[in-house]
Structures are given as structure tokens and as C-alpha cells.
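Study this chain:
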Amino acid sequence: MSDETNKALLNVSDDEFVRAAMGNKGFTKDEGVIPFTKIMQPLSPEVGTVPMATPGVFLNAATNKVSRELLVVPVDIRWSYTEWVPRDQGGGFVQDWGENELGWQDKCEADQKFAYQPVTKDGHNILRGRHVFMFSVDEIGDFERTIFPMAGTALKVAKQWSTMLEYAPKVNTSKGMITPAYFYYTYRIVSEEVKNSKGRWFVPKVTANISDNKYQTVFDLPNGKAIWEAAVKLRDDLVSGEAKASAQVEGNDPY
């Protein structure tokens, strides 16, 4: 990636571009509800019940739309902590702690607060993950906002993606060289199969969207300006709390 990327084809002003970039936060009401998109696993309940939902594909939990590959525009990546009743006790969602790590830690013994797979005093499991708030875009430029959850072994991929966003090619503006908003560049996600003694499952693989040796920006996409404007609004809604995740659905990932 070159640090001298120039936004010659950018369809926004320098001031708008810089304002969007300044909104990067770093990684440390009903219409605002955002659905999840997840990778189907061999034990996912949708496999065999939702048309074309087979292990390794991506499924939008709200629309049941199935995709084998995703073209995405990320807006934000946030830590997420959720509390679950163990499956051998009936299973079920208890609480979404969001980024509030201290909240669920108060429910744990000292030795569980920093455990790899924490368990509360009530015997509930705490799932640590990253939520990627993003737009999924199709070949004609239609787009929908969604959340891509990443937990277990996929956390390594989330960390790699976070690094890609933090160190994305800088853009030359009248204000100087700027690391752009996360939603300036576009990315592709596919799934890869993993096997070990515990079984098989699928993890995401994220790569920059490159064509003709050029990193593709949101403005290279059909309908790119509309996607950019929607991304700006989504990030503002996330900051204000107007946008939120839809109801959690327990995953069947063995990782």
C-alpha cells in the first residue's frame, strides 16, 4: 500500500473527507436495529432449513439472504460481550453487555474475570467477540447494513482487519496526508474451513478489495456516493446510540 494515494476521483470535498476521517474511534429505536450476518457452521440450525444455507456460506439473519462471498464497506469495529446459559442447561441468551467489560466481570469470581472463556457465578458463559458494523454491497450497488460477529478463533482475523483499517493507505488532501475513514476502502470476505480433533468449522478471511493493482474505494462502487453518505449516518447513529444490534442469536460455532 502506498502512503501517497491521491483522491483525484473522490466525490466529496476535502472538508467532508477530513471530518469523516476524524470520526475514526480507534480500537480500544427500532428502525435503528441492525441485523447480523454470520457464517453457517455444520451445526447451525439454519443448515437444512433455510434454502441454500450450507456450511461455509454467509447468512443474513433478518432476510435469510445467502452469499458465498461478501463485498463490504466497514464502518466500525467494537468489542462485544454477551452472556449465555450453557446449552447443557437449556441454553439461551441472557444479556448483551456491549463494550461494558466491568459489568459482566462483576458477576464472576476473580479467577474467571480474565479467563479465556469466562463463566459467571451463576454458571453462565461469557462470549467475547468483535462486532463489525458494515454495509454489504452487491454487484449493482445495492447495499444493506449489517453486523458481522467475530469470536473465538475468528478474533485473530478481527485483529488483522483492525490493523488493516488503522494502517490503510493515507490519502493526500488539502489538509495534508490523512488516514481515511474506515468506510473509504472496500474489502472482501470469504470463509475458510478449519479442521482439528474437535471437528470442522469455518472462519472468515478478509482481504482488501484490489483491482488492477489498485485498492478499490467506496467511490469505485456503483452507488458509491450514496453508500458513503449512509456510512457517515450509520457511524453518527452508533455514536448517538440510535443504531443498535438486533436480538442476539446463539451461534453454533465450535471455536
